[in-house]
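Pipeline run #58 for the internal structure catalog. This entry was flagged by the ingest filter as a single-chain record with no existing model, so it goes straight to prediction. Upstream metadata was stripped on purpose; only the residue string is passed forward. Reviewer on rotation: M.T. Logging verbosity set to normal.
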Amino acid sequence: QTNLVLVEVEDPEGFLQALAREGVLATAGKPGYARLCTHLDVGDDDIEAAVEAAARITATLER
């Protein structure tokens, strides 16, 4: 079990910038990946908002 989520994307920097505009902070992972991390102060609602933001962003990037 881990508190890390790796997201494979073609343009990690663009994905990270788009997440930041949505209020979601993440960092670059290994090449081709974004790295998101939860912690004690991140609640279920925060995680759901981050997942929804990531889904919107990836749908836009895939077009």
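catalog note: Residues 29 and 35 are 5 Å apart (CA to CA).
catalog note: The mean pLDDT is 93.
status: ready for reviewer M.T.
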